[in-house]
Design a protein that fits this description.
Elements lengths: L19 E8 L2 E7 L6 E7 L9 H8 L7
Antiparallel strand pairs: 1-2, 2-3
């Protein structure tokens, strides 16, 4: 823990309630998520440096699969 780098977290104020995923990039062990809002030209970029693992799911395909199970109706 002696070599740990500690960064101060500064919260972002005025984040819109509805954001859309513009891009998801995985380059050289750095994951970058770019979000946008249709009402403004301002984008939000979230950068994860040194990502060990993540999972991505296309939700529209998952919802289609849920309709096939009778116990969910």
């Amino acid at each position: 823990m002696l070599n740990s780098k500690i960064n101060k977290w500064d919260p972002i104020h005025d984040i819109p309630n509805q954001l859309y995923l513009n891009s998801l990039r995985d380059e050289a062990n750095i994951l970058t998520v770019l979000l946008s809002n249709v009402d403004t030209d301002r984008d939000i970029s979230i950068v994860f440096d040194g990502v060990i693992s993540y999972q991505s799911v296309i939700e529209t395909c998952s919802l289609e699969q849920l309709e096939k199970y009778h116990y969910l109706k």
